[in-house]
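Narrative of accomplishments. A recurring question from our advisory board has been how the design workflow behaves on a single, concrete structure rather than in aggregate. To address it, we present the structure tokens for one chain from the evaluation set, followed by the sequence designed for it. No filtering or post-editing was applied between the two.
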């Protein structure tokens, strides 16, 4: 097959800038796709952390007025990734996260900041950079979703377009009166264009105007076409159901490798699972938990939010911690949840240990040292933490939603007898469901042989990017057949 060129348009990219799973996916796909004959160059905003990480740079395009002030488009490399960077200090040189002010509010000019990402993506897609004209422009989430719209309304030859929904809860909705300021024509403001309930919907525009729509697991692809899961976009997605594909996310197995992970106190393999006890001891010490090898240790690596079901974990603590069990939590988010878990660490000294914020090394240690990982999300497009848990021998306890149900095989009687179980699923997603699942996991954990089989099955599971990359490559090529 002839090689394909893809422009990946993303607002974050691991290991350069990360707030969540989008960065992991956008960072891992280029290398995986290279094995499928696909060259990926990623377009990324020039946040301070991004500009600091760049290796060699070259200015490939200059803008006298990119939504108010001059800007440059840079070609660069960082962390073995080929990049285009939008160097626009008036849009991206500021403190806080890529999306929020230091006090946690949306940047008031987010519409223009991420319209710039889409607009420049469209220009690259139409040959603005000599030497790289992509066959496909692949937009990720609402921040990049205007790229297909700019291409559609340019009335010029264009590449194929794909948009991936990482979380449909975040849609990028802005007032209608900025349409002309964004450089979109009046004819775009229709139900078949960017209009969304009288406003401009960035994600809606991408879903309406892209050639293909993907999301990050097969089950989530079905869920978002329902009124319960579609969050207002289910009708549009049902009307385009033939173009909607669920492709499971993977993890970068060069980053997540328990056999050589320097963040672990003791790397291990499927045949040396007993070494996990050293990591468990290190984790207990790191978070101030009692040094008890016989205590079942539950781990959490998560954004602290109701979507992730962390309020259920709080409510379940009295039951969860019976028998001397422990909880190791790494996360940040909702301030009320943070304070509640902080209080719980005082109420249950030596049994609850928390770190609020993000610590990549601790995330690896929790995966390599916890006995089980809790992922009780109310909805979950794919989830990556349960994939890391499988790979690291921490048995995932997950709600039966989205990608969690696609990637974890419940340890029911038949699955155990067949030797295929990898974790524990539960439904409905409520306190009773979580408590029952945790109790079932405790019973399994008490049977050391059964628990080890769960761990070995999980570590043998296919969690990397090879299969998803093949699916993306096929999707790209099918897209080109119709452009």
């Amino acid at each position: 097959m002839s090689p394909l060129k893809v422009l990946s348009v993303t607002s974050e990219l691991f290991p350069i800038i990360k707030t969540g799973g989008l960065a992991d996916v956008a960072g891992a796909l280029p290398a995986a796709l290279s094995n499928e004959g696909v060259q990926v160059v990623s377009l990324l905003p020039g946040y301070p952390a991004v500009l600091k990480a760049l290796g060699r740079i070259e200015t490939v395009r200059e803008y006298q007025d990119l939504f108010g002030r001059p800007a440059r488009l840079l070609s660069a490399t960082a962390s073995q990734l080929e990049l285009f960077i939008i160097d626009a200090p008036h849009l991206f040189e500021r403190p806080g996260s890529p999306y929020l002010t230091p006090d946690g509010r949306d940047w008031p000019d987010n519409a223009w900041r991420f319209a710039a990402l889409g607009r420049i993506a469209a220009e690259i897609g139409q040959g603005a950079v000599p030497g790289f004209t992509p066959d496909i422009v692949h937009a990720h989430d609402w921040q990049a979703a205007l790229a297909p719209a700019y291409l559609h309304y340019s009335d010029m030859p264009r590449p194929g377009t794909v948009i991936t929904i990482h979380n449909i809860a975040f849609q990028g909705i802005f007032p209608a009166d900025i349409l002309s300021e964004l450089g979109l024509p009046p004819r775009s403001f229709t139900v078949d264009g960017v209009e969304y309930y009288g406003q401009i919907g960035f994600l809606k525009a991408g879903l309406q105007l892209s050639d293909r729509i993907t999301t990050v697991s097969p089950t989530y692809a079905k869920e978002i076409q329902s009124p319960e899961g579609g969050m207002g976009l289910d009708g549009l997605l049902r009307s385009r159901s033939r173009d909607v594909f669920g492709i499971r996310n993977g993890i970068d197995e060069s980053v997540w490798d328990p056999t050589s992970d320097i963040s672990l106190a003791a790397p291990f393999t499927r045949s040396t699972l007993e070494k996990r006890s050293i990591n468990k001891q290190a984790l207990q010490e790191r978070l101030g938990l009692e040094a008890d090898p016989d205590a079942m240790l539950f781990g959490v690596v998560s954004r602290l939010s109701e979507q992730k079901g962390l309020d259920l974990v709080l409510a379940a603590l009295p039951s969860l911690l019976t028998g001397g069990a422990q909880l190791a939590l790494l996360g940040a988010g909702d301030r009320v949840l943070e304070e509640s878990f902080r209080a719980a660490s005082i109420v249950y000294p030596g049994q609850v240990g928390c770190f609020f914020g993000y610590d990549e090394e601790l995330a690896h240690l929790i995966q390599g040292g916890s006995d089980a990982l809790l992922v009780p999300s109310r909805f979950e497009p794919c989830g990556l933490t349960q994939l890391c848990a499988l790979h690291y021998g921490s048995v995932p306890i997950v709600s039966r939603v989205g990608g969690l149900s696609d990637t974890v095989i419940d340890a029911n009687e038949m699955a155990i007898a067949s030797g295929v179980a990898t974790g524990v699923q539960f439904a409905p997603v409520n306190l009773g469901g979580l408590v029952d699942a945790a109790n079932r996991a405790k019973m399994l954990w008490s049977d050391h042989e059964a628990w080890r089989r769960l761990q070995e099955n999980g570590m043998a599971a296919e969690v990397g990017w090879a299969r998803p990359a093949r699916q993306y490559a096929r999707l790209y090529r099918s897209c080109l057949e119709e452009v």
